[in-house]
């Protein structure tokens, strides 16, 4: 898995769901960061999901994701 600083908007990758919340799921996209897949309710914690990076906030180590 990559480090967060190596990721770019538009990258497509497979991540693991780390947490399911009412507004979406958090997906581990790098060794040191998760991203939010907003509005998703289907994936369960621990499952793999293919995502595309929509936006990156490098200061907060956050990313917005979409299904790829």
Automatic annotation (TrEMBL):
Tell me the ranges covered by the S1 motif domain, including all copies.
Answer: 10-68
Q: Which GO terms describe its molecular function?
A: mRNA binding; structural constituent of ribosome
Pfam families in the cross-refs: S1
Which GO annotations describe the biological process of this protein? translation
Give the matching InterPro entries. Answer: NA-bd_OB-fold, Ribos_protein_bS1-like, S1_domain
Q: Which PANTHER family match?
A: 30S RIBOSOMAL PROTEIN S1
Question: Can you name this protein?
Answer: S1 motif domain-containing protein
Q: Which organism is it from?
A: Rhizocola hellebori
């Amino acid at each position: 898995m990559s480090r967060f600083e190596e990721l770019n908007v538009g990258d497509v990758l497979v991540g693991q769901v780390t947490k399911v919340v009412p507004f979406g799921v958090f997906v581990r996209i790098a060794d040191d960061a998760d991203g939010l897949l907003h509005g998703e309710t289907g994936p369960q914690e621990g499952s793999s999901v293919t995502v595309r990076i929509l936006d990156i906030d490098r200061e907060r180590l956050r990313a917005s994701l979409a299904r790829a």
